[in-house]
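hi! just following up on the protien thing from before. the input was this:
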Amino acid sequence: QVQIAESGGGLVQPGGSLRLSCAASGFTFSGSAMSWSHQAPGKERELVASISSSGNTINYKASVKGRFTISRDNAKGTVYLQMNSLKPEDTAVYYCNAARRTYSANLRDYDYWGQGTQVTVSS
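and the predicted 3d structure came back as:
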């Protein structure tokens, strides 16, 4: 079965950094687009960053562009989200998502996700 596990969240001060990791298995990872989404209290889940199966195409939510970097290691079946210059509004549960296509910047195309990891940005 598809297994997705996020890790690396925690409590950080504004301006700080975190690196999230996602270990994925049970599907052809190298042929699947991957993404990170998040859900803040009282808000809908939204796409934060997406990356094509090869890693050649990347898309970010406008508010995180220049601060976050998504990357993947197909040999390890792992995707990462490096988050710098964190802001209180980044506080949310972050989910790693997998799609049945090589690339998508639409959250609706991501069929699988994990349990999430909490990111809290506060002084």
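The mean pLDDT is 97.
The first strand starts at residue 3 and ends at 7.
cheers
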